[in-house]
Every structure is written in C-alpha cells, then in structure tokens.
Description:
Elements: E1 8-13, H1 17-32, E2 36-42, H2 46-55, E3 62-64, H3 77-84, E4 90-93, H4 100-109, E5 114-117, H5 124-137, E6 141-144, H6 151-162, E7 168-178, H7 180-185, H8 195-211, E8 215-223, E9 237-244, E10 249-258, E11 266-274, E12 277-282, E13 289-292, E14 296-299, E15 306-310, E16 313-320, H9 322-341, H10 346-360, H11 367-385, E17 391-393, E18 399-401
Parallel strand pairs: 1-2, 1-4, 2-3, 4-5, 5-6, 7-10
Antiparallel strand pairs: 7-11, 8-9, 8-17, 9-10, 11-12, 13-14, 15-16, 17-18
Helix pairs in contact: 1-9, 4-5, 5-11, 6-8, 8-11
The chain binds nicotinamide-adenine-dinucleotide (NAD).
Amino acid sequence: MSDREPRLPALVIGGGMISQEVVLPTLFQERRRGRIGDVWLASRRGATIERCRELFPDEAFTGFPTGGDPEESCPDAYLEALDAADEKTLVVVATPDHLHTEMVLAAIDRGLHCIVEKPLCLKVAEAHQIREAAREQGIYVLTDYHKRHDRAIRAAKTRYASGELGEVLCGHAWIEERREMPLRWFARWCGESSPFEYIGVHYADAFHFITGLLPRRVFAFGQKKLLPTLGKDAFDAVEAVVEWANGSVLYIQTSWVLPDGHTALTKQGLQLTCTQGEYWADHKDRNCYFCTQESGFEHYNPNFFKGYEDPDDPGRIEHVGYGYDSILQGIRDVQRIAGETREMSHADALARRRAMLEELAPIRALPGQALVGTAINEAVRLSIDNDGAQIGFDLDLNLRVQ
Ligand SMILES: NC(=O)c1ccc[n+]([C@@H]2O[C@H](COP(=O)([O-])OP(=O)(O)OC[C@H]3O[C@@H](n4cnc5c(N)ncnc54)[C@H](O)[C@@H]3O)[C@@H](O)[C@H]2O)c1
C-alpha cells in the first residue's frame, strides 16, 4: 500500500456473531493484502476474546479485557482500547444495537473513523447527535448496510435510476429468520431489539437506497405469542407499512421464529411495482443448494459472505460477497481520507476531511442516510407502543404521533 492509502490499525468493539463470521475474517484478509495493520478486539467478556482466539488460531490480535475472570462483565474495556489506540485506527462497532451510540461517540471524541454495524442507532435524536459530532470533527461514520452491495439490490437501484421502471408505486419486503436467533444467538438482548429493528431495517434502507425517497409516515404491528412462552419478553414478528414522500407504500414483514427446519437462516426478498415495470427478487433462494447426510437440505446464498478456495492459493480461503464489499468500502474510504490528510496541519486536515465527507454524503450510508433506517425503526416501535398509531416525520425525520 502507498502513502496515499496507508495501512489502518483496526479496533473491533464486540466479538459476537457478526464479528466472528464477517468482520474479523474480512480484517484478517485485508491485513494479508496490506490494507489493515494490527487488529485489536474489545468485548464485554474475556471469554469472548478466548472464543475468537480458538476460531482464528493463526491470526494474531490484541484482546480487551486482559486477564481476570473470563466471565466477568467489563462493559468499559472498550474505552481502555480506544484510549490506547493509534490515531489512524479504524473502529468497527459490532455490539448490540442499543449500545452503538455511546461507542460511536467515544470513537468520534478521540478523532477515530468508524464503521458501525446496522442500524446506526435506535433513536433519531442519537442519530442527529452522531451526525453533528461527526460533522464537527470531520469523522467518517459508515453504517454497514451490506444489502446495498448485493447485486440483486444494486440491479434494482441501477435500473430504477435509468428510468425504465418509471416511478415506484408500492412494494413488499419479507425478511424472517429461524428461531435460533432470539433463542440462541441473541438470548441476552432479544427483548431490547425486535425482528424489525434487527433485520427489517435492511429493507427500509434498501428502499431508500434504490429510490432516494424519504419516509412520510409509518404504521406498525407486533406479536408476542411464542417467545414469551420460552422465557423471552420479545416480539415474534413485526410488520410495518411505510408511506414515502412520493406517496408510494412499502409493506415490510419480519419475524425471527421460523422453525428450525427452515432451509436457510434467513428467508428474504423484495418486490416493487412501478409505473413502467416490476422488480421481484427472492434474496434467499438463489437457485443453489447443498444436501448432505450431516446437515440435510440447505439453500446456499453464494452472494452474501462466503469463503471460496483462493484461485491463486488453493490452500487458502478467500472471502468475497456483499458482506465483504460493504466493509471494504469503509476501509478504502478511510484509507483515502488518511492518505489525503497525511502531513497536513490540524486545521487543513479538518477542512479537507469535512470536504471529503460532504462529497461522500450523497453516495454512502454516512449518518445523513443511515438516519432513514433509524427513523423508521423508532417509528415502528412508537407505533406499536401506541396501538398501531400513525407516526409522521418532519424534514429532519423527527417523529410525530398523529
Ligand atoms: N451488517 C449486518 O447485516 C449485520 C448482521 C448481523 C448483525 N448485525 C449487527 O451487528 C451488531 C452485533 O450483532 P451480533 O450478531 O454480532 O450480536 P452478538 O450478540 O452475537 O454480539 C454482540 C457482542 O457485543 C458484545 N458487547 C456487549 N456489550 C459490550 C460492551 N460494552 N463492550 C464491548 N462489547 C460488548 C457482546 O458481549 C457480544 O460479544 C448488531 O448491531 C446487529 O444488528 C449486522
């Protein structure tokens, strides 16, 4: 890598599922390719760090908390890591949704650029706070909305932008997961989230990404029938109807209680009806499956984030797909910002960073765009709490119960 694209040290906060399956493999791969330098991982419990060491026995990384009882809860260990981090460090926030704000603000406060797992945060007021802090300090904060990189979504965006579909009228999205998500993976925090906040928001963001439209009002409904019988005060399913600025309507159906026997963890897709055409895509069934004695029948999505034998080094696995592309976009943007502001005075570097961020704002899930998903998430919660009431938005996407 050149001086214009320096290697970035990386600090991952949160060592759970997405870090183990996507974030860390991506960072280790990019370290081999020269984009990433030292990797640090801060999680709440030492046991999580140990688990990641077992998963990646050949990859060196520094873990926080250090020492002590591996089961002890250390919710502030990430602050120790942030305080010790090199000034070029790229921070990746991969903690439960409701914790993102404090971690992103702590990174911004120390002048560190971030990638944050979707959703940016759960409250519009917090998204505004993050946007303002990032603007003030000239800090890059990208929300990892990886569906923006799925070619099935990029195709819809490209052909919608070309005008051949005409204007969007209505559509529906479905995204539902097997019950292992709230019962096994998110057993500790499923009650703080919901299938809409966790996965439905992908399609709220995808609709905004494809059409450029902002939401006008939302109605939502939720059901708690199965999970409470299994000891979880959490929604089984949540549905939302979103009206957009041009009067079009998207219905988003979500759940996370599909039976264990479902043929993929996530069942998902999107349909759009426009004045001059239709888009329809099954984002689960990519017409590819495996059936083995050990695992039975599985639908296989070759596009998301998969490891394939590296054609140049068949002994190694190369990770590709939209989960990878999304994080790579953040790494490359931050490399470019670091490269262009290298050796500048503090004031010049700040001015250049702000200018670069202004150029990126219309084309990236920086806080201005990530606000859309956060606003719809919060509106869905508020609507359900108000018995399906209509929630409207002002121009800054602040909510109003109507
Ligand atoms: N980009 C995507 O499509 C995608 C996919 C899955 C998850 N996510 C998002 O990623 C985030 C994490 O999800 P996950 O599936 O990995 O959840 P998870 O529960 O498996 O992992 C979260 C981790 O954060 C740790 N943590 C909690 N409090 C912490 C603290 N104070 N300091 C440091 N670590 C702390 C937990 O111990 C856990 O290891 C969520 O925001 C989720 O919505 C995004």
